[in-house]
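Q: What structure does this chain adopt?
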Amino acid sequence: MRQLKIYPQQPVVVDKQNSHRTIGYFGDSFCSNSTSQSSWCNILAKKLNCGTITHWGIGGSSVWHMLIEFHRLVRENKLPEHIVIVYTDQDRIYHPNMLLPIGKAHEESETELEMATDSYLKHLNFQEKNAFQYQSSIQWFDQNTLANLTAHKIIQTFSFNIPNFTLTSGKMLDYPLMPLYRKNIDDGVADAELCNHMNPTQNLELAETFAKMLK
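A:
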C-alpha cells in the first residue's frame, strides 16, 4: 500500500460578477478540481451563473471523508447554494489527512500507516459490513442532513453503481458515472485526453443534464 497526501482545497472564482452565487462538488475524482474548461464542473457552474466553486471532490478519497467534511460545513454554515454529491465506492479506506487508494495496495509498504493498512485489508476488511455501513450512513445523511437543507438545491449521484436503496432529498441522477469512463477505456482514449474521466462530449452532456435538474 502507498499513502498519498490530501491537500487543502481553495474556492475558485470563475465569474467575478456572479461570485456571490455558489456551487460545490463533494465526492471523488469524478468531480475533482480541474482548470480545464471541458470539465463538467466548470461548465455547470457557468450554466447556473455560479461565479464561485466553493468545494471540489478529492480523487481517491472515501465516502467517509466527504460525509465528515460536509457535516463540518453544515455546522459552520458554509455550504454553497448549489450542492452536487458524488458518492464513491463503499470499500475505500478512510483517513482524515491521507489517501489510501486500493489501486496502490499492490505496492510495497514503507510507513507504519501503509503497513497498518495492509493488515487491515488482510484481516478486518469485510465487504458485507462495508455495504451495510455504506447504505445506512448514506440513507441517514439523506434523511437527516440533506432533508433539512431546504434553502439549497441538491443533486445526488453515484460514481460506480446505483444502489438498491432510495434517496429522497433533492434530485437523483439515475445512472452511475463509471460506465462513461469504461467506455473511454474500451475506445482506447488516453487519460490525458479526459477530464474527470470523461471526454468533452460526455462532460458537456452531464453538465446539461445537471443544469436541467437544478434549474
